[in-house]
């Protein structure tokens, strides 16, 4: 019998696994855009450690292995900025990403007072866009990533969390 995937807040000890997982998971995004300088691939381990220490970071575990992660923080306008959602390639398509996203939303709204959730993804990232739409996000605009990738910005009100949980 296999192990169950558990979702929990990240700890300081998870930072290195998150760093390695992020590098693995975002290779396909980099290939999609022909840009291997996207933020998740150039982020330092120290920066990941700082996010784990100060932001809302949620991980999915299979035993002791971190197989998924997402981060969020509440911005000055009361929106929770959610990003770097990733699930190990061998485990994608099993609902882990949606579970991570919902756990981050619950923590950001319940513990940090977020009034709405905002995230962005590359304009060619159809799988990500399908997931975000399925859990209630709507397109609100576009942006240019610091790495030059055109992004689609999506949001949903925090009250919508209860309807999609």
3D structure, described in words:
- Helix content is 37%, strand content 32%.
- It is of the alpha+beta class and 165 residues long.
- It starts with a strand and ends with a helix.
- The mean pLDDT is 92.
Give a nutshell description of this structure:
Helix content is 37%, strand content 32%. The protein is an alpha+beta fold and 165 residues long.
List the helices and strands and how they pair.
Layout: E1 5-9, H1 15-25, H2 27-33, H3 39-42, H4 45-54, E2 56-62, E3 65-74, E4 79-87, H5 96-110, E5 116-122, H6 126-134, E6 138-144, E7 150-157, H7 160-164
Parallel strand pairs: 4-5
Antiparallel strand pairs: 1-2, 2-3, 3-4, 5-7, 6-7
Number of strands: 7
Largest sheet: 7 strands, mixed
Mean pLDDT: 92
Shape, per Cα inertia axes: globular
Strand order of the largest sheet: 1-2-3-4-5-7-6
Q: Assign a percent range to the helix content.
A: 25-40%
Question: Which features characterize this protein?
Answer:
165 residues, alpha+beta
């Amino acid at each position: 019998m296999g192990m169950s995937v558990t979702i929990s807040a990240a700890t300081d000890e998870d930072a290195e696994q998150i760093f390695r997982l992020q590098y693995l998971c975002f290779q396909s995004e980099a290939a999609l855009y022909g840009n291997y300088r996207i933020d998740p691939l150039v982020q330092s381990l120290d920066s990941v450690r700082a996010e784990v220490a100060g932001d809302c970071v949620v991980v999915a575990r299979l035993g002791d292995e971190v197989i998924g992660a997402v981060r969020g923080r509440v911005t000055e306008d009361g929106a929770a900025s959610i990003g770097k959602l990733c699930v190990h390639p061998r485990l994608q398509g099993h609902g882990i990403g949606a579970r991570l996203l919902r756990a981050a939303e619950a923590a950001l709204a319940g513990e940090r007072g977020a009034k709405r959730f905002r995230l962005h993804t590359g304009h060619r990232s159809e799988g990500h866009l399908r997931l975000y739409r399925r859990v209630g996000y709507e397109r609100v605009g576009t942006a240019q990533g610091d790495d030059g990738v055109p992004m689609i910005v999506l949001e949903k009100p925090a009250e919508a969390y209860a309807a999609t949980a």
